[in-house]
Write a structure and sequence with these properties.
By secondary structure, the chain is α/β, with parallel strands linked by helices. It folds into two domains: 3-133, Acyl-CoA thioester hydrolase/BAAT N-terminal domain (Immunoglobulin-like), CATH 2.60.40.2240; 140-418, Rossmann fold, CATH 3.40.50.1820. Helices cover 20% and strands 31% of the residues. It has eight helices and 25 strands. It has helices spanning 3-8, 86-89, 178-185, 210-221, 238-249, 337-350, 394-415, 420-426; strands spanning 11-15, 19-21, 27-31, 38-46, 52-60, 67-68, 76-77, 92-93, 109-117, 124-133, 140-146, 149-155, 162-168, 189-193, 208-209, 226-236, 253-259, 270-272, 275-278, 289-290, 296-297, 323-329, 356-361, 378-381, 386-389. The strands form six sheets. Strands 11-12-14-13-16-17-22-23 form an eight-stranded mixed beta sheet, with helices on both faces. Strand 20 and strand 21 (296-297) form a beta hairpin. It is globular.
């Protein structure tokens, strides 16, 4: 048998199918290799900014010339050991400090998987394309430009009723649709909003107004297919302290997911009905630690919110009527999220409250996202004006994302009860 004939029989399969949701695992299988043949498996993808991300791992076929990533360990490469989705989460850019950008929902995350010979140039033996959809079939996407609100509304297919969630994704201006559209694909009506820098909004802001989120919640509750009594709020990083304020000062917030944030209002003063309700907790640039990669460790740069002069920044979460899910990564290097959770838990307990649960992830970093995207060790931080370390050990971080994504959906489903009668009344 010639070499060409041999390689033409190598088959790379993605099961159960090559087209799936972004947050679903795929089983990667190779057949038609020689018994115990050692090959290199690769994955590559280009993000929305045109940056290429890739990973590779060495595998050894079994006696039948087959490799199954659910069973077989990687011997070397971007990761080692049995990691069924390792080729996805270990993808890295070949330039430093790049975060994988997948913010738009209409185009899938396209990943090319391939099998290569170990020797020489590593001739390709087989390849397959994985289309990872960010928006499920039948989900509707509607840009929202109503009153002050600038965002995108995602609605699941079917009549509902569905629980409603406000997604405060980012503080970097603009919009990210990925988490919102994936949640909508799992049965939630989700509105993701921009705070600044999007569409006709100001490029920069010097204060935040709670009234904006109040308007967004009212808009969300009016949607035909919404059946939950109140809304859920999901947040990450700076937006997590905004979520605490939304839950503490505004009505109709039943469930709040706080991911790797602060227990105090940070950076910008917060206003409601034209009055300032909290100053911003600032950070000390001299406490940012430079590292060899050129990225800074900012974990302990934020001022202490418990210090007497900063107490006005602390958010009175004991006023919140709804429930909290606090999620902290112990290796968050953006700030000390774990200490913020400890402060919030102590505060709620002191006020006799039990309306919270918390999850701590020992080996995870700051950016906890929907699962199976490339892990990001460091990237440019708009507020700091430099690249920063996000923390986390890639494998533990990837596992935390899988666990958290399931937890978020369970939390919202449990605490955002749906009432068919309420939906009927709207229709």
């Amino acid at each position: 048998m010639t070499e060409e004939e041999m390689s033409s029989q190598v088959i790379l399969r993605l099961l159960p199918r090559a087209r799936c949701m972004f947050d679903e695992p795929v089983q990667v299988m190779v057949s038609g290799l020689r018994a115990r043949q050692v090959v290199t498996m690769r994955a590559r993808s280009t993000d929305e900014k045109g940056v290429e991300f890739s990973s590779s791992a060495t595998y050894k076929a079994d006696g039948n010339g087959e490799i199954n990533l659910e069973r077989d360990p990687s011997l070397s490469g971007s990761y080692v050991g049995v990691e069924p989705m390792g080729l996805l989460w270990s993808m890295r850019a070949d330039v430093l400090h790049k975060r994988f950008q997948k913010n738009k929902s209409l185009n899938p995350h396209v990943v090319k998987f391939s099998v290569h010979e170990e020797e020489g140039e590593g001739r390709m033996l087989a390849e397959a394309t994985n289309e990872r959809l960010v928006m499920g079939d039948g989900v509707s996407r509607r840009p929202v430009k109503e009153g002050n609100i600038r965002g995108v509304l995602f609605t699941p297919p079917g009549g509902g009723p569905f629980p409603a969630v406000l997604d405060l994704y980012t503080f970097g201006g603009g919009l990210s649709e990925k988490r919102a559209s994936l949640l909508a694909s799992r049965g939630f009506v989700v509105l993701t909003v921009a705070l600044y820098g999007h569409d006709d909004m100001a490029r920069n802001i010097t204060e935040v107004h709670l009234d904006y989120f109040e308007e967004a919640i009212e808009f969300l509750r009016k949607q035909d297919k919404v059946g939950s009594r109140g809304v859920g709020v999901i947040s990450l990083s700076k937006s997590a302290d905004l979520a605490l304020s939304v839950a503490s000062y505004l009505p109709d917030v039943e469930a709040t997911v706080w991911i790797n944030g602060c227990c105090a209002n940070t950076l910008l003063p917060l206003y409601y009905k034209r009055s300032q309700i909290h100053p911003g907790l600032m950070f000390d640039g001299s406490k940012m630690i430079p590292t060899e990669s050129g990225a800074f460790n900012c974990k302990y740069a934020t001022h202490n919110p418990l210090a007497e002069e900063n107490k006005a920044t602390l958010i009175p979460i004991e006023q919140a009527k709804g429930r909290f899910l606090f999620v902290a990564s112990e290796d968050d290097l953006n700030w000390d999220s774990k200490t913020s959770v400890d402060i919030m838990v102590e505060r709620l307990k002191r006020h006799g409250k039990q309306n919270f649960e918390s999850v701590c992830n020992p080996g995870a970093g700051h950016y906890l996202e929907p699962p199976y995207g490339p892990y990001c060790p460091s990237s440019f931080h708009g507020v700091v004006g430099k690249p920063v370390l996000w923390g986390g050990e890639p494998r533990s971080h990837a596992a935390a994302e899988v666990h958290l994504w399931k937890k978020i959906q369970e939390f919202f489903t449990t605490h955002l009860g749906c009432d068919a009668a309420q939906t009927e009344a709207k229709l």
